[in-house]
Amino acid sequence: MIITGEIGRSVDVRSPFFEFVRSVGLFRVGRYIQRDSGKLLILCYHGISKADEHLWRPTLYMPRSLFRQRLQTLRDFGYQVLPLATALERLQAQSLSGLTVSITFDDGWHDFYSEAWPELSAFGYPATVYQTTYYSQYQKPIFDTACSYLLWKGRGQTLRDSKITGTEQAFKLDSPASIKCAFAAIGSRLHKLRASAEDKDRLLAKLAARLKVDFGQMLSSRLLHLMNPSEIAEVSKGGIDIQLHTHRHQLPLEKEAFLGEIQRNRKLIEAATGKCAHHFCYPNGDYRPEFPAWLREAGVISATTCEPGIASRQSESMLLPRVTDSTTVSQARFESWLSGVGWLASACKRKALSLSGRQRADAGENAPISNVQEQVGTAAASAVTRAFEGH
Ligand SMILES: [Zn+2]
Fold this sequence. Notes:
- The protein folds into three domains: 30-51 and 78-138 and 226-325, TIM Barrel, CATH 3.20.20.370; 143-220; 346-390, no CATH class.
- Helices cover 50% and strands 12% of the residues.
- The protein has 18 helices and 14 strands.
């Protein structure tokens, strides 16, 4: 399948290699071998499109029909989908049996409430939502995300408005690079003005009008909004686990501020759900060596990253691996994760890259040794960073 993402960029989401591996039955063999491995696959999702978000950010969004297909795959392959806390307890107790998955969603977007939750409910599957809370309280579209989306919606047009961009320069919105330039100019202007959240909202409305995008429709459909506290309470009552993701989607490097982010986030989540929140997900997938100890001090008992992998009893509970599913992941690739063949292929590729790096180093080239996991993790993390920059 070929989808068209940002302007001028098509994404081919076929995986000929994994399609071949599946066709010769190796996925089935992999699932059979894995059935008693006692390992846990933690799936990570961000957004399920209300409209065309998967065309704008295919690495973060997927259409609802594709999400339904993934859930059906889990059912067809006989996976048990466990709540994250239960799965982690059993992982540690070495009592996981069969093929096991936990489903997680980052950020707590309104599309979880409107698109993902109904699908999960239809399958009777539990999920954990790592909820960031600033924009849950402040019910407006998340500025950076909405600004980027509006510029994408206005593709093909020329933006020339100094009251929006702070410059007389004309930005022809015909490539990802020019959209990025317009986005940077807007950000720079707002930074200079020390713009408030209300100023940013006014600018979004102005930008939408300039690019002839129906901003009223975006607001009424809650596009690019987070769930509000009553929606969080409702999904929690319906069995969805709401957990920590910081208040403002950031992790300060100073310990007191770091702990403050967790405390504020936890207070608001617990007020909405009436339940304890002590599982955590690193915003942007970023972490530093000191963070696990700080999280333990804050009463956190598990933390997930964006490092791809499958969790085992040996995994560090504050650095649990997850795989990020999106429109850019082919069905064959998704099934390779489930069968374990994907991890084997990644390990072989890493080994090959490592060996070729060593050979280059031996040849005096001093070339860096590539690390596929790091590359993928960084890509996922930077995609999320882009979604929240600077709010
Ligand atoms: Zn996030």
